[in-house]
Design a protein that fits this description.
Radius of gyration: 23 Å
Number of strands: 10
Keywords: Signal
Largest sheet: 10 strands, mixed
Shape: globular
Distance between the termini: 81 Å
Protein name: ABC transporter substrate-binding protein
């Protein structure tokens, strides 16, 4: 028979071990996996730090683009890895239709304009950006800063222009449509854009698949079809010799959305992350990173003063997300078959 003191010690050890195990398990739960939350894009780095500080939830950085994220979510549908995802607006309805998102209406949902959210809560906009030319002036070798889409076709810019791959990246697909509409096309007629990109292909463009902010800052890609928020970040935060140009033919304003992954392993934490990105603090942070928060009043006067004048933004029109999503397959197919 074991001595009573030994029994008490053993019981205490077992209780203590169980408590430690429970604490460890609880600690392990304080995670949320986000697909397409790259720290170098749209100031996600600051957001991920804030989420960890405010919510005690670690969200590992993830460098997928929108197309790669949806492909991974579909492949993992039977056993999801991610809890939330961030997508270019063009990918919002396709992700919903693929059955990889589940409805969740975070705090602040009611204040989001109807055109910027799924009525059932599968996705919602957190901020938007205006597409244009992100230019490293020092890397142009004395050439003038281009002012239009058509300028990019000039021989003097050979090898200097970049854009993200339209076969997978949302910003690449938006670039096709922005140029298409600016040059007289429609959501149903992509011919102007295809002609443009075939001509641009002769100028040996650089076509990465991932966000390429650092490559513009370094001068490796002197001209990138990209958003205003990245250009302003380079200009005002990294003090790089860069500028943002809204092409004279016109362009598009594009929303970015988030949604809760269906059957994600840390659903409760995912919901907390989605609540946070619509909070006053997070919305103000997006604004201070030169994005236009979905709640416009959270863009500070100080940040807005660093944007181009409103007269320039008059050439930037809101994208029709449903029409753009309907054109997505044709954009990918025609680019792949006729341009690449």
């Amino acid at each position: 028979m074991m001595p009573k003191r030994f029994v008490r010690t053993l019981a205490a050890a077992l209780v203590g071990g169980a408590a430690l195990f429970a604490a460890g398990a609880a600690s392990a739960q304080e995670t949320a996996i986000c697909y397409n939350c790259p720290p170098e894009w749209a100031d996600w780095g600051s957001q991920l730090k804030a989420i960890r500080s405010r919510l005690n939830i670690v969200v590992p950085p993830d460098n997928k683009n929108s197309g790669q994220s949806i492909a991974a979510l579909i492949a993992e549908k039977a056993s999801p890895v991610a809890d939330v995802t961030y997508l270019g607006g063009i990918a919002a309805d396709p992700a919903r239709d693929a059955g990889v998102l589940t409805p969740y209406k975070p705090k602040g949902w009611d204040k989001i304009p109807a055109s910027l959210k799924d009525p059932e809560g599968h996705w919602f906009t957190i901020h938007s950006g205006t597409l244009g030319l992100f230019v490293n002036k020092a890397a142009l070798g004395g050439k003038p800063v281009p002012q239009s889409w058509s300028d990019l076709l000039k021989p003097e810019y050979k090898g200097l222009v970049g854009y993200l791959d339209p076969t997978s990246a949302a910003v690449g697909q938006l670039g096709v449509m922005a140029i298409n509409l600016a040059l007289g096309g429609s959501y149903d007629n992509l011919d102007p854009a295809i002609r443009f990109f075939k001509e641009l292909h002769k100028n040996q463009p650089i076509v990465p698949k991932q966000t390429s902010y650092a490559r513009v800052i370094s001068g490796e890609i002197p001209i990138l079809l990209d958003y205003d928020f990245n250009a302003y970040r380079g200009q005002y935060k990294d003090m790089a010799p860069v500028a943002f140009v809204i092409p004279k033919e016109g362009t598009l304003v594009f929303p970015y959305v988030m949604g809760l992954v269906k059957n994600g392993p840390h659903a409760a934490n995912g919901q907390k992350v989605l609540d946070f990105v619509l909070s006053d603090e997070s919305q103000a942070m997006w604004g201070n990173a030169f994005l236009r928060p979905v709640f416009a009043d959270k863009l500070s006067a100080e940040a807005k003063a660093k944007f181009l004048p409103e007269s320039e933004y008059a050439r930037a029109k809101p994208v029709d997300l449903k029409k753009l999503a309907a054109a997505q397959a044709a954009i990918i197919e025609r680019y792949r078959n006729e341009v690449k």
